[in-house]
UniProtKB/TrEMBL annotation:
InterPro entries: Methyltransf_25, SAM-dependent_MTases_sf. It comes from the Eukaryota. Residues 60-154 form the Methyltransferase domain. One of its GO terms (molecular function) is methyltransferase activity. This is Methyltransferase domain-containing protein.
Amino acid sequence: MNDDTPLDFTIVNKRLWNAKVDHHVKSPMYDVPGFLEGADSLNSIELDLLGDIQGKRIIHLQCHFGLDTLSLARRGAQQVTGVDFSEKAIAKAEELAKKTNLTASTKFICCNIFDLPDPEELFDIVFASYGTICWLPDINHWARILSNHLKPGGFSLLVEFHPFLDIFDEAYTRIENSYFNHGPIVCDCQGTYADRNAPIRNKSMEWCHPVSSVIQALIQNGLKIEVFKEFDYSPYDALLNSVKIADKCYQIKGLQGKIPIIYAIKASKPIS
Ligand SMILES: C[S@@+](CC[C@H](N)C(=O)[O-])C[C@H]1O[C@@H](n2cnc3c(N)ncnc32)[C@H](O)[C@@H]1O
């Protein structure tokens, strides 16, 4: 490839995510042994907004290696479909579904979410969380996928790192970047958030989607915003320069309580 060839985000990011999987599976952050013994990987932010999922049909976009997908099934969802384009992540998710006897209530699809076929049956809930939309160039297309997969009366739930974080340098010590989307941000990444010393180095392509773009895309695709919340902490110790302020509660040193770190949007599909 010469230097002028545009990068294909699917190829670049799939390579990146395939390289992360083994390190994430072994990491204390994902705690696979705990999960196999019955621990729930979901956090109170999404659990409160999901409400009672007994008997629901859920599609979980960008499910990584499936811990949250399987946790939704353990909580009584009738059928949970996890989608991810990383072959290694989906293979691990299928292996974990077998180990936890959840194959009857879960299904995994390995594909780019932009290539998902039209669903044969619509879903009650579309769910995505923590590090998903930054990998997608087209937020309007993403919102169309959500809307196309929902039953009338169903809802989507996105829980995401706040794009306000993107204005800072990696250590959150100074303002370096725009809050607005000026096209792909291409980086060479070493290690990974769940294991900073993992011996991996890959290019990544990300986009900063301001909260207004996400809300506007959901509205334009026929969804009604029901809940919009911002949180001043992350349940994961995934950011540099973090301080633990409580169990599953991390903020950034020097900025504690001052900036949004996570946001959540619940949007419903009207019945008519
Ligand atoms: C940070 S993880 C998702 C967070 C998840 N809650 C977890 O378990 O950590 C991001 C996932 O998005 C997937 N991904 C990125 N771009 C994608 C795309 N265009 N289509 C499908 N999956 C994608 C990656 O393979 C990765 O597994």
